């Protein structure tokens, strides 16, 4: 946030409010020894064969022989938990629950140059930080560009990433945080906001929305908001429905509160952000008036509604614009508090952008390879807890492979577009991955994508818009996918294939 000489205003409030923050995950279960089972039905597995009310069956084939792994559920509580997730449609809360304190902390501590001696102002760490943000955006599969502007005869860049809307692409919501500093480490101001920006982008990039979301890592905020002003003025005629500015969200000496600022003209959006924070976190919120000291202000100046989210006690932060604004300062950054602040901002962003109907897996079967660890819940989120399938190489098989079939139930028989989202990786060696959907009209599998995958996460969003209804089974509205990985010639005994997330977006 820029110095006080350039801005003004304040406001305070105290209260308490409690709410549950996270959804518990199911514990992994070990698998018993395999027993023989029936052959797979033609055209794929069905729910009756591979899943019964009292047990989960994990099936795989080896040559012409089919083996069936049958896993008895540990308790009726576990069964109820699986049933609660079955055929669930993704909600805003599902996305928010994927926010990760460890990932956020790694970004802030180790990626954004926030340690003692670091300088993202006019020092040597400014450009590497900008380059890291750009590369991280690209790794999420977003549309990324550098937005140039001039300051004192030099060119600087905002780093902009776009997640296009599928229904109303001209309607935009912006999440912005500045990454520059006043020649100091800037852990709170504004490494905390930049880490929040990247965490929201990481999760949102794996879903689809009605409206466009724009993520802006702005530059030269500390020099009078030059980067955000350049962007707001250039795109003042765009249909920008709201801007959330995150700046300084990690300092919490006491209490459990957030502060929101903005001009009176932004009141509808400010109070919408307040309501989202109250709905999705246990924070209390103070809403103040105009405070033209951060990157929301240039958007308000061109007639857009914007809200400035900041820690409650920012004015009392003893490390503000000091060299001690560092992640190495003891008892300084409250990472859980920062993620709660992020959660509130993301809640409003997702609600306003309009999450398209997204469906989680109802179940899965291992059709090639041997089940390793993980249950269906490992396929829900992009959180590095994976469903593992082990590809072993018995002497009678030329090449090891691994595959699963998984299915969901769409809410409607008709669809103009289906997007299959998959995140996966392999360990031991690169493998060739294929992703397919089952065509119920033709009675066979259709390949959507093939590529090599390795130890780094491979995130795919595969779109089908031509005759999408063929992939929805008449009557049951079932949608089925097959995800497989094959050895490509390296002489190894075995390797593992990991699936981190699968869902279907149907509209």
What does this structure look like?
The protein is α+β, with helices and mostly antiparallel strands and 507 residues long. It has two domains: 35-89 and 358-506, Jelly Rolls; 102-353, Zn peptidases (Aminopeptidase). It contains ten helices and 23 strands. The chain has helices at 47-50, 76-85, 92-96, 101-111, 126-139, 187-204, 226-234, 267-280, 297-301, 335-353; strands at 35-36, 51-52, 55-62, 65-72, 143-151, 154-163, 168-178, 211-218, 239-246, 257-261, 284-287, 306-311, 358-359, 363-368, 370-371, 387-392, 401-409, 418-427, 431-439, 444-453, 458-464, 478-486, 494-506. The longest helix has 19 residues, at 335-353.
What would a concise description of this structure say?
This protein has 507 residues and is α+β, with helices and mostly antiparallel strands.
Features:
six-stranded antiparallel beta sheet, Aminopeptidase, Jelly Rolls, single chain, 507 residues, alpha+beta
Number of strands: 23
CATH architecture of the largest domain: 3-Layer(aba) Sandwich
Q: Helical amount among residues, as a percent range?
A: 10-25%
Give the mean pLDDT.
84
Number of domains: 2
* Model regions low in confidence, pLDDT < 50 over at least 5 residues: 5-87
Protein topology:
Blueprint: E1 35-36, H1 47-50, E2 51-52, E3 55-62, E4 65-72, H2 76-85, H3 92-96, H4 101-111, H5 126-139, E5 143-151, E6 154-163, E7 168-178, H6 187-204, E8 211-218, H7 226-234, E9 239-246, E10 257-261, H8 267-280, E11 284-287, H9 297-301, E12 306-311, H10 335-353, E13 358-359, E14 363-368, E15 370-371, E16 387-392, E17 401-409, E18 418-427, E19 431-439, E20 444-453, E21 458-464, E22 478-486, E23 494-506
Parallel strand pairs: 7-8, 7-9, 9-12, 10-11
Antiparallel strand pairs: 1-4, 2-3, 3-4, 5-6, 6-8, 10-12, 13-23, 14-17, 15-16, 16-23, 17-22, 18-21, 18-23, 19-20, 19-22
């Amino acid at each position: 946030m820029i110095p006080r000489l350039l801005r003004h205003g304040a406001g305070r409030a105290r209260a308490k409010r409690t709410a549950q923050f996270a959804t518990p995950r199911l514990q992994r279960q070990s698998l018993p020894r395999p027993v023989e089972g029936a052959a797979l039905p033609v055209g794929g597995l069905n729910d009756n064969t591979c899943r019964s009310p009292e047990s989960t069956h994990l099936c795989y084939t080896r040559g012409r022989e089919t083996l069936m792994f049958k896993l008895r559920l540990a308790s009726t509580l576990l069964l109820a938990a699986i049933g609660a997730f079955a055929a669930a449609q993704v909600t805003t809360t599902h996305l928010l629950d994927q926010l990760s304190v460890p990932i956020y902390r790694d970004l802030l501590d180790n990626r954004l140059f926030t340690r003692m001696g670091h300088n993202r102002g006019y020092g040597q760490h400014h450009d590497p930080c900008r380059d890291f943000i750009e590369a991280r955006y690209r790794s999420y599969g977003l549309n990324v560009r550098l937005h140039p502007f001039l300051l004192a005869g030099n060119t600087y860049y905002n780093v902009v990433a776009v997640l296009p809307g599928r229904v109303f692409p001209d309607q935009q919501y912006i999440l912005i945080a500045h990454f520059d500093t006043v020649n100091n480490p800037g852990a709170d101001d504004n490494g905390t906001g930049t880490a929040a920006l990247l965490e929201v982008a990481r999760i949102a990039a794996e879903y689809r929305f009605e409206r466009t979301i724009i993520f802006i890592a702005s530059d030269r905020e500390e020099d009078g908001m030059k980067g955000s002003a350049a962007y707001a003025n250039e795109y003042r005629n765009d249909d920008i429905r709201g801007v959330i500015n995150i700046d300084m969200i990690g300092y919490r000496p006491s209490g459990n509160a957030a502060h929101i600022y903005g001009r009176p003209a932004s009141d509808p959006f400010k109070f919408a952000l307040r309501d989202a924070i109250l709905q999705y976190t246990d924070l209390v919120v103070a809403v103040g008036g105009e405070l033209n000291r951060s990157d929301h202000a240039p958007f308000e100046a061109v007639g857009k509604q914007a809200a400035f989210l900041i820690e409650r006690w920012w004015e009392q932060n003893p490390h503000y614009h000091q060299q001690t604004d560092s992640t190495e300062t003891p008892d300084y950054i409250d990472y859980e508090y920062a993620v709660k602040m992020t959660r509130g901002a993301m809640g409003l962003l997702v609600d306003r952008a309009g999450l398209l109907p997204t469906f989680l897996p109802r179940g899965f079967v291992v059709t090639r390879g041997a089940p390793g660890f993980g249950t269906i819940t490992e396929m829900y989120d992009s959180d590095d807890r994976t469903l593992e399938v082990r590809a072993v190489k018995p002497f009678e098989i030329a090449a090891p492979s691994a595959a699963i079939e998984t299915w969901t139930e769409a809410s409607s028989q008709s669809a103009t577009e289906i997007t299959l989202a998959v995140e996966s990786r392999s360990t031991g060696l690169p493998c060739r991955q294929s992703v397919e959907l089952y065509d119920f009209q033709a009675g066979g599998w259709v390949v959507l994508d093939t590529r090599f995958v390795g130890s780094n996460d491979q995130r795919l969003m595969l779109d089908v818009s031509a005759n999408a209804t063929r992939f929805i089974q008449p009557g049951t509205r079932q949608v089925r996918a097959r995800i497989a990985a094959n050895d490509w010639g390296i002489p190894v005994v075995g390797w593992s294939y990991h699936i981190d997330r699968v869902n279907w977006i149907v509209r």
